[in-house]
């Protein structure tokens, strides 16, 4: 029997890229899959119902069970309907994979209100809305005596967590918020038997990353940038044997690495009850503060074929100007 036989998983943004790879992999392990994707462009505009249906049809052609959904995760009622669709089609919902994302990359002074709101709505509000309606369903099931294990897997990005990428005020902020929300929901939903974890794909070839230097190259053999590298981890996290919750896990190639998030570093304390400006000025400089350019260089340098701060600064200037 396959690992996920009989379990129903709702995957958002499952028409292309990472979400598609996840949906196909989950189905290959026996899961019933709700393939959600409105078929929009990278920036969130437009729509194509055939995108989700093509993936669902591919699963069914391989002997699996799948249904397409084209609702927008930013629509509160549509999020409720996709949860209801899973229950109507397959009898229950066991897991949600919040993968949907859009992207508009511009410098701060050029980014419009609509472009900021749209990206944050899909990534952050969308993950919240679908999780909220899934949790409401699971609360009703628990109150009726059902103690089956459930799971939410959120999807964030290195942008906003450990890659402070310029031109991504909207995308980076939303991803950092999704990681924070993962911890909150893990603490809240444990009482319902729900595990909540987050995957952080890095250097994966999708529509959103094709403009990144080095992402167009595909090797003849195994491809560490293929979206499929994320799917095995997701299949474990949604399965009944996953033993942990509240974790944020980076995936780059074959490497899976816990992301620690914001942690308190070395600090200073005033000699009295409060600081003066002069005292702070004298002592803050002695703290081991991290430069964001050095942080970005350390994270991306080897992957992009560049080394050091000067190369990173030149890349940023070229993007922004």
UniProtKB/TrEMBL annotation:
Signal peptide: none annotated. The keyword Repeat does not apply. InterPro entries: KR_dom, NAD(P)-bd_dom_sf, Peroxisomal_Beta-Oxidation, SDR_fam. Residues 7-202 form the Ketoreductase domain. SUPFAM superfamilies: NAD(P)-binding Rossmann-fold domains. One of its GO terms (molecular function) is oxidoreductase activity. It comes from the Bacteria. The keyword Oxidoreductase applies. Keywords: Oxidoreductase. Belongs to the short-chain dehydrogenases/reductases (SDR) family. This is NAD(P)-dependent dehydrogenase (Short-subunit alcohol dehydrogenase family). It comes from Glycomyces artemisiae. The lineage of its organism: Bacteria, Bacillati, Actinomycetota, Actinomycetes, Glycomycetales.
């Amino acid at each position: 029997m396959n690992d996920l036989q009989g379990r129903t998983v709702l995957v958002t943004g499952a028409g292309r890229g990472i979400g598609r790879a996840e949906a196909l992999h989950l189905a290959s392990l026996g899961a019933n899959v709700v393939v959600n994707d409105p078929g929009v462009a990278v920036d969130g505009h437009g729509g194509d119902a055939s995108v989700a249906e093509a993936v669902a049809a591919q699963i069914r052609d391989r002997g699996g069970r799948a249904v397409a959904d084209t609702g927008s995760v930013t629509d509160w009622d549509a999020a409720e309907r996709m949860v209801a669709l899973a229950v109507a089609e397959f009898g229950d919902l066991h897991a949600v994979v919040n993968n949907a994302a859009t992207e508009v990359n511009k410098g701060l002074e050029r980014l419009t209100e609509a472009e900021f709101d749209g990206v944050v709505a899909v990534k952050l509000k969308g993950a919240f809305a679908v999780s909220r309606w899934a949790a409401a369903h699971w609360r009703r099931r628990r109150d009726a005596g059902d103690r089956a294990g459930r799971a939410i897997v959120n999807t964030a990005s290195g942008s906003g967590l450990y890659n402070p990428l310029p031109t991504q005020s909207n995308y980076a902020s939303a991803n950092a918020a999704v990681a924070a929300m993962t911890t909150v929901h893990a603490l809240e939903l444990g009482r319902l038997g729900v595990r909540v974890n987050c995957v952080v794909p890095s250097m994966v070839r999708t529509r959103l990353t094709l403009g990144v230097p080095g992402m167009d190259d595909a090797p003849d053999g195994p491809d560490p940038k293929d979206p499929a590298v994320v799917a095995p981890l997701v299949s474990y996290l949604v399965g009944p044997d996953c033993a942990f919750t509240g974790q944020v896990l980076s995936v780059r190639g074959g490497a899976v690495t816990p992301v620690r998030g914001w942690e308190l570093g070395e600090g200073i304390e005033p000699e009295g009850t409060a600081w003066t400006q002069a005292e702070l000025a004298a002592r803050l400089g002695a703290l081991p503060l991290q430069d964001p350019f050095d942080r970005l260089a350390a994270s991306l340098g080897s992957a992009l074929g560049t080394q050091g701060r000067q190369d990173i600064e030149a890349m940023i200037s070229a993007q922004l100007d």
